[in-house]
Amino acid sequence: MVLNKEQIKEIIPHRDPFLLIDEVTELEAGVSVTARKYLKEEDFWFKGHFPGQPVTPGVLMIEMLAQAGAVCTLSLPENKGKIAFFAGIDKARFRGQVLPGDTLELNVVMTGKKGAIGFGKATATVNGKKVVTAEISFALADPK
Q1: Of the listed 9, 14, 36, 49, which one is catalytic?
Q2: Could you tell me the residue ranges of all domains in the chain?
Q3: Cα–Cα distance between 87 and 35 in angstroms, integer?
Q4: Structure pTM?
């Protein structure tokens, strides 16, 4: 493990219940990141999505990928203390259900930057099987 949850909270502003990554296992600041989310039955979304057949919502998996990407870009010394706002998503594909007990492996590779806007290719897997792919973008800003 490269970063635990407390170390992640030193980089991104997210807090429970909306801090959606548990650890970072690989990090090359500004280049790529691999993080994990351990899905537990008591995670807040499973109670209502869906009763009797709990499934992780796709939008939350995208948010998990975005948070991993934020750790990657905000780990650069020049971005310390900034916030990475979600700016866009393209080509999102959901290829499988993610259930309580699964471990979601989140990988983001940065693909470019234009001013304060950054771009990344995001992939989430469970047991080596792709469950989500997307292209994401973010905007860096100073906190208010």
Answers
A1: 49
A2: 5-141
A3: 21
A4: 0.97
49 is catalytic: yes
Distance CA(71)–CA(27), nearest Å, equals 9
Calculate the average pLDDT of the chain.
Answer: 97
Q: How confident is the model at residue 86 (pLDDT cuts 50, 70, 90)?
A: very high
In the prediction, which pLDDT does 1 show?
85
Residue owning tokens 């292209």: 135
Q: Which helix (H) or strand (E) holds 88?
A: strand 83-94
Residue 1 CA, chain-centre distance (Å), reads 16
Cα(35)–Cα(68) distance, integer angstroms: 6
Q: Does domain 5-141 have CATH number 2.60.40.10?
A: no
Whole-angstrom distance, CA of residue 107 vs CA of residue 12:
17
